[in-house]
Amino acid sequence: MKSVVVHGTGDLRVDERPDPVPGAGEVLLAMEWGGICGSDVGYWKHGGTGTAVLKDPLVLGHEVAGRIAALGKGVTGLTEGQPVTVHPATPVGDEPLPDRLAGRTNLHPCVRYFGSAALHPHTDGGFSEYRVVRAGQIRPLPENVTTEHGALAEPLAVAMHAVHRAGDVRGKTVLVNGAGPIGALVVAAAKHRGAATVLAADLSAASLSVARAMGADETVDLSSGAALPEDVELVFEASGAAAALGPVLHATARGGTVVQVGNLPGAAVPAALGDLVTREITWIGSYRFVEEIDDALLAMHQGLDVSPVISHRFGIDRAAEALAVAADRTSGSSKVMLRLAATPPGAV
């Protein structure tokens, strides 16, 4: 089977690997779509992302969907040909979480995640023609959700988790700083959860256009010299840029809340944080998600349209070109999708 494998910094290949066979309690998926994430780009461009450093070749991809090709022994409740997506996380070990983390499995001290070099040996992702998955990771797609949109359940779940971390957003004015794919999905998630007004800010006109299509009521083009609005009660920082922290904190109302969903650098960087103290701002981290992938699928079933966030589509043989487009802020890209296999006869 074909697999998209990063071998080192700047070294991406489409390799041939043996077709996998499902064991007991496992499911074989015929993969159809994958969405390229910033972490995929990081492994390719820098040989790592955050604190995870590439030591061996790694199959990329954690935003994926496909159809069940075969069931391993003992798997029930699923059928061959069924369209599904995947919860990419597998906690390692059975040590109970402390009470303060009850239910927050995303904060388990050791988690294997699709397409991640955080642990060694690494955990291969799903950018391949086939992938064996634990049955417990399978999430069937609602009948009106395609596998292309199903591949976006994972990043939408990240956005849903961030909004969940903020508490009740109904009737509130919300600012989303950074309108890349996650920021645009945060816009959609906030509107879906009842936010009254959502403002989106970014340096890219193309990204702001996507944010508007995803439900932003107003946008701020920071490239024009415009400043962030003032005294916003709830702010989602989705850019992950340390230089944005000062302006974001200054835009937050006294006693307001900032949810940090953009991944910040893992090394020391300068940042202006004074307003965090003088405004008594609550600064909340948001990491991946727990079971919000189910909320994401339900939201799509109920009509939340993720199609505006998709900007490009490439076949698996053009994976290197796809990552280059995703990494290039001047390309106008938002979510770049990989077609991982030919569409089966009769499939949507």
UniProtKB/TrEMBL annotation:
Keywords attached to this entry: Metal-binding, Oxidoreductase, Zinc
Superkingdom of origin organism: Bacteria
Cofactors: Zn(2+)
Domain Enoyl reductase (ER), residue spans: 8-338
Alphabetized SMART domains for the sequence: PKS_ER
Keyword Metal-binding appears in the UniProt entry: yes
Pfam families xref list: ADH_N (PF08240), ADH_zinc_N (PF00107)
Family: Belongs to the zinc-containing alcohol dehydrogenase family.
Protein name per Swiss-Prot or TrEMBL: L-idonate 5-dehydrogenase
